[in-house]
Amino acid sequence: MDWEQAENPPRLRKTFRFANFREALAFANRVGELAEGANHHPRLTVEWGRVTVEWWTHSAGGITEKDREMARLTDGLVE
């Protein structure tokens, strides 16, 4: 998995790049649908041409297997 591990709190982070804001926003919406379905929600930062996704489990204080699975599923949302 090519996600970086950030700290404070420990979390998985990856920035996805797109041709424009519309594509970035559409991807963020797909991540939102995935998150709602799993009842597990990431931090999303949407900017022109990119979306940064961060997964961690607040109650565990860091990264869990569920976060790793959500990261793998997020990778599958790229068109």
Q: Could you describe the 3D structure shown?
A:
The chain has 79 residues and is an alpha+beta fold. The protein has a single domain, classed as Transcriptional coactivator/pterin dehydratase (Gyrase A, domain 2, 2-Layer Sandwich), CATH 3.30.1360.20. It is 37% helix and 27% strand. It has 2 helices and 4 strands. Strands 1-2-4-3 form a 4-stranded antiparallel β-sheet. A hairpin with a 2-residue loop joins β3 (43-47) and β4. The longest helix is centred in the middle third of the chain and has 18 residues, at 21-38. The chain is globular, with a radius of gyration of 12 Å. The two termini are 18 Å apart. It catalyses: (4aS,6R)-4a-hydroxy-L-erythro-5,6,7,8-tetrahydrobiopterin = (6R)-L-erythro-6,7-dihydrobiopterin + H2O. Belongs to the pterin-4-alpha-carbinolamine dehydratase family.
Question: What would you say about this model in short?
Answer:
By secondary structure, the protein is α+β, with helices and mostly antiparallel strands. Helix content is 37%, strand content 27%.
Can you lay out the helices and strands and say which pair or pack?
Layout: E1 4-6, E2 11-17, H1 21-38, E3 43-47, E4 50-55, H2 65-75
Antiparallel strand pairs: 1-2, 2-4, 3-4
